Amino acid sequence: MQRTYHSTKRKHVLVFGLLSIVMLATGCVGEPQVVVSTEAPEEGFRLGSEDVIDVVVWRNPDLTREDIIIRPDGKISLPLIGDIQANGLTAEELAKQITERYKEYKENPAVSVSVKAVNSYNIYVLGEVNQPGKYPLKAYATVLQAISMAGGFSQFASENAIQVVRRITKDGRTKEIRIPVQYDSLLSAKGAEFNFILRPGDTIVVP
Q1: I want to staple 119 with a disulfide (CB 3.0 to 4.6 A). Which of 15, 33, 50, 143 is the partner?
Q2: pLDDT > 90: what percent of the chain?
Q3: Contact, 92 vs 111, CB < 8 A?
Q4: pLDDT band (50, 70, 90) for residue 139
């Protein structure tokens, strides 16, 4: 009876080992579920501190302002209406809010907002990389690109236990989410499904 038990146990271990090898070979082990889009955000670029914008009020040069730098508190100041929140809005959303505020003073104001310089798209790469730190960018970057900019992994990195920490705001509430990333998946045949676009403020943590 004892011999049968050990024989059966060895068979189970052998089968499990073979299955593990097959799963590793086919990339089926530990692939993180894609919980974010790999494309640039559909809603467009969201403004942040230090971005430079132009606010044009049609046929109202006295209200038009160029080279406005969004302050650290996320606001800008405009004639008549004073401070208005810009951080977290797209240029179109900000134009709509400014339009609504100017309706108190002007009939049918036409406002446009354009982005002249992007200075708020900062990402962070921390942990076991060769050059950890803050990276100011002028264009969208992917997880792989960010790791490359940080000089790649150190010799102690756990490459398949990466997390991207992201703060999201919804209904006025901000929460933190953690997105698992495995380096092996990024390099696999399906790598494009996992190599998503980073958003401003994202932090890549390599344990």
Answers
A1: 50
A2: 68
A3: no
A4: confident
